[in-house]
């Protein structure tokens, strides 16, 4: 944190000194980049799912020596302790598919019949599911800022309040007028299944030196976190054939327009006041990294920077408003050459609703026509992880966006 404060102070002193004309744009850009790097050192780069067993093996080697790997801990849940760990669980699934009669294989078979047979998968033991949930809450932006409400069914309808209670001033001994809040049933949630496929060599899954529970959880979460954030912030059912509409394409979301060719302080004010006062009260910004870099250098009409450094345990702010950074809504995703700035009450009006626990299906004879890989012929095991979830904007009018 001391280095961050030093970098911020250095930039501001350099820009504000009388000889500021001597400072080049490259120097200012470099200082801004340094601030960004120091501001979020704890965040790892979220990588896509490895597409080949070789890529997965390379990721496993990196994982072993990254300092993140913890010793493998035996599973202790009633279901999980039958297998001991992820390697034992996957072996039992393999035995079941091959028709080998064993207590472990029968345990998996029972879960497939009683639990997720309709998905063709098996619920993973609690230990793995808990690891996934923990990582999702730390790596996915929406699980931190949205309203998380689990679903117990695949479809449900939420009543959304559309009108409030009216106050009256009756005269003495006069009848009081009744007033009730009004509701609309505009939000119907329908959970969809998100799937992530991991191709692995059989050797890797037998590697006793790696914590498979932790490693596979990271791989799955990296892929799903990116997808969930992308859908929540952008998502377009009609144009991009996504399963959900995100904030950018939500019906009723307000649009702020830039006054000139490049973003300035007036544009941020325009975005801020595009929302009515009730929605601004708890609103935050969500921006990509490229916008954060610009905002670090942006000043108001009095020459004050609108980006405020973190201090006394409080995060950095933009114009005294909290913000989050996500690069899962960049220009290549539905917005042409522009990058969006989102502003709204995510905690109240963005619903993230997990439907069920993580399920996994194993195949050792799958075939991929795209790259002509064959799990059976190449001694591979393919894992398909699935999870049901619904992501919905409850009220589009509670959000606004600016395309930069």
Report on this structure.
Residues 114-119 have low confidence and may be disordered. Helix 1 (2-16) runs antiparallel to helix 2 (25-39), helix 2 crosses helix 12 (289-296) and helix 4 (86-98) crosses helix 5 (103-114). This protein is α+β, with helices and mostly antiparallel strands. The two termini are 30 Å apart. It has a domain at 53-152 and 189-229 and 380-388. It contains 13 helices and 17 strands.
Please tally the β strands and state the result. 17
Any low-confidence stretches, pLDDT <50, length ≥5?
114-119
Strand content: 15-25%
Helix content: 25-40%
Helix/strand class: alpha+beta
* SSE topology string: HHHHHEHHEEEEHHEHHEHEEEEHEEEEEE
Mean pLDDT: 83
Backbone CA Rg: 25 Å
Strand and helix layout:
Elements: H1 2-16, H2 25-39, H3 53-64, H4 86-98, H5 103-114, E1 122-123, H6 126-139, H7 141-145, E2 147-148, E3 155-163, E4 182-190, E5 192-201, H8 202-205, H9 212-233, E6 254-256, H10 265-274, H11 277-280, E7 284-287, H12 289-296, E8 307-308, E9 317-318, E10 321-325, E11 340-344, H13 346-349, E12 350-354, E13 359-363, E14 367-368, E15 373-374, E16 380-393, E17 399-403
Parallel strand pairs: 2-12, 6-17, 7-10
Antiparallel strand pairs: 1-13, 3-4, 5-16, 7-11, 8-9, 9-10, 11-17, 12-16, 13-16, 14-15
Helix pairs in contact: 1-2, 2-12, 4-5, 6-9
């Amino acid at each position: 944190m001391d280095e961050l404060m030093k970098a911020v102070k250095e930039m501001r002193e350099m820009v504000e000194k009388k000889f500021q004309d001597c400072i080049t744009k490259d120097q200012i850009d470099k200082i801004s980049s340094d601030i960004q790097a120091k501001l979020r050192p704890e965040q790892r780069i979220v990588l896509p799912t490895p597409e080949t067993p070789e890529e997965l093996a390379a990721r496993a080697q990196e994982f072993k020596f990254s300092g993140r790997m913890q010793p493998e801990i035996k599973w202790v849940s009633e279901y999980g302790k039958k297998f001991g760990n992820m390697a034992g669980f996957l072996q039992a699934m393999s035995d079941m598919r091959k028709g080998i009669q064993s207590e472990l294989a029968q345990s998996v078979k029972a879960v497939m019949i009683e639990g997720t047979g309709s998905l063709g998968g098996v619920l993973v033991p609690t230990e793995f599911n808990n690891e996934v949930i923990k990582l999702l809450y730390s790596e996915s932006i929406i699980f931190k800022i949205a309203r998380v409400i689990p679903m117990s069914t695949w479809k449900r309808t939420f009543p959304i309040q559309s009108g409030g209670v009216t106050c009256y001033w009756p005269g003495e001994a006069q009848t009081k007028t009744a007033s009730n809040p009004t509701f609309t049933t505009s939000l119907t949630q329908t959970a969809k299944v998100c799937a992530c496929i991991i191709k692995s060599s059989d050797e890797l899954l037998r590697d006793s030196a790696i914590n498979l529970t932790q490693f596979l959880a990271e791989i799955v979460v990296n892929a799903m976190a990116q997808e969930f954030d992308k859908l929540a912030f952008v998502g377009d059912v009609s144009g991009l054939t996504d399963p959900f509409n995100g904030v950018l394409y939500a019906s009723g979301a307000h649009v702020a327009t830039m006054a000139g060719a490049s973003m300035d302080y007036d544009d941020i004010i325009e975005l801020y006041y595009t929302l009515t006062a009730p929605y601004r009260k708890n609103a935050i910004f969500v921006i990509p990294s490229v916008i954060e870099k610009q905002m670090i250098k942006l000043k108001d009409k009095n020459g004050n920077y609108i980006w405020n450094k973190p201090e006394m345990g409080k995060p950095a702010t933009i114009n005294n408003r909290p913000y989050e950074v996500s690069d899962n809504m960049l220009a290549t995703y539905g917005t042409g050459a522009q990058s969006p700035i989102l502003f709204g009450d995510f905690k109240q009006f963005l619903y993230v609703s997990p439907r069920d626990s993580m399920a996994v299906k194993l195949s050792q004879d799958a075939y991929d026509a795209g790259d002509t890989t064959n799990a059976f012929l190449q001694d591979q095991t393919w894992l398909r992880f699935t999870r049901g979830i619904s992501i919905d904007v409850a009220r589009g009018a509670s959000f606004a966006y600016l395309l930069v």
